[in-house]
Amino acid sequence: MTRLGFLIARSLRREAPLAALSVTQSDLLSDLAGKSVALVGNARALSQGEAGAEIDAHDVVIRINRAPMPSAHSHGTRTDWLALATSLPAAERARISPGRILWMSHKRKRLDWQSAQSPGFYLHPLADYEALKAHLGAQPTTGVMLIDMLARSTLARLDLYGFDFFASLSLSGSRSADKVPHDFAAEAALVGNLIAQDSRIIRN
In sequence order, which residues have a C-beta less than 8 Å from that of residue 166 and are 6 or more positions away? Predict the structure, then answer.
C-alpha cells in the first residue's frame, strides 16, 4: 500500500486495507508460545517499587502508550512490544525504541504511517474491542484489552506490573478516574476473574 492509499483508507475508515497491513492475531500470539511476558502498566505506584530488573528479565516486555519509565530501577528499560491507543511523537518513539507496534485503539484515524509500516505491525480487530466494551459497559483501557488478548495465547507466564486500576492514578497524565471513559471497577473484576481461572497470570 502506498502512503496515499493508507491515508485514504484511514480517512474513510476502510478496515480491510488497514487490516492487510497487520499480522494476524494468531501469528502475533504464536510469538509468545512458551514465553514469560511482562506487561507494564502506567500506575504511579510502580515508580515506588524495585521491579525494574525483574521486568527486564522476562522473554518479552510489553509497555503501553507513552510508556513512562521514570527509572530503570522501578520500570526496567526494555520495550519489545509497545501497545498504542494514541499518537507517538518522534522523540518518544526514539526514547522507547519498541521492537514492535500494536495499535489497540478503535480510532483508526489516529494511526500513523510509520507505525503501520513497522516490522510486525499489529492492528487489533474492531470486533474484539466491541466485545470487550459490551462486557465492561465502558470503553476498555489499552491494558485490559492486552490482558484479555494475551490470556488467549500459549504463553508460559504473564506478569502484570503497574496495574492498580487507577488507585494511584497514572504516570502518563493527571486526570482522575471520573475524567476518563473507563470503568475501572469492572476492569478490576474482569482481571481478577482471569487471575482466579488462569494460574499463568500474576499481578505483581
Answer: 43, 177, 180, 182, 184
* Predicted confidence (pLDDT) per residue in 83-127, tens digit: 999 989 999 999 999 999 999 999 999 999 999 999 999 999 999
Domains annotated on the chain, with CATH: 3-203 (3.90.1480.20)
Mean predicted confidence (pLDDT) in 33-55: 95
Residues with Cβ within 8 Å of residue 106, at least 6 apart in sequence: 126, 129, 130
Could you tell me if 175 and 168 are in contact, meaning their C-beta atoms sit under 8 angstroms apart?
no
The residues near 88 (Cβ < 8 Å, ≥ 6 apart) are 65, 66, 82, 96, 112, 115
Q: What is the reported pTM?
A: 0.94
